[in-house]
Amino acid sequence: MSPLEKIDLAEKLARFDERWSPRIVAELNGQDVKLAKLEGSFVWHSHVDEDELFLVLQGKLTIELRDGRVELGAGQMLVVPRGVEHRPVAEGEVHVLLFEPAGTVNTGSVRNERTIDDPQRI
Amino acid sequence: MSPLEKIDLAEKLARFDERWSPRIVAELNGQDVKLAKLEGSFVWHSHVDEDELFLVLQGKLTIELRDGRVELGAGQMLVVPRGVEHRPVAEGEVHVLLFEPAGTVNTGSVRNERTIDDPQRI
Fold this sequence. Notes:
4% helix; globular; 6-stranded antiparallel sheet; homodimer
């Protein structure tokens, strides 16, 4: 036993089913580790001040970019630098781990019905 | 195709075999994402200014702490806060992903033959 919390990704993923609604599972050095379930197409957006890392845990995720696309499977990741417009597209259900600065908003500088300002910590 | 680099964790891990020698595979927001192969016991150490995340990709890793221990399998992670003494112990070969501030030294405030000041980027 220890006072530090072991974080089991599968157990955390089982706690929610909502798509495009990242949950915070760890915080360190001013950064958040988030888990999200994705399905279908998200919105085009960019983050002014935040680089964003996507690590696919399950499924196939395409990150569309204005000048190309990157297809990611389980065990593959991509860093989208600040300022780079991107649109995640999930073929079926996709589970991802995100690393990004605390306070990063999922839709970046775009605001719409998918914007989540205050993600839940689980 | 895209100018952004897809990072395949298995492909990166296949590029080196050295134990206790983290490689940098991505950099974002002043943080490094590293991969390491661990086997056996490391040294007790702590990091003065850096929280450190261990995500186990393969194998069984025990993080010994002065007041307990945490056992991690694949898909499980732990954040060791700055200042907390810890000693990773790997049962057999273990593959881990580390997330920590750029410049974090593997042995923290301890310096010995296992200290690596300038990890390779792969």
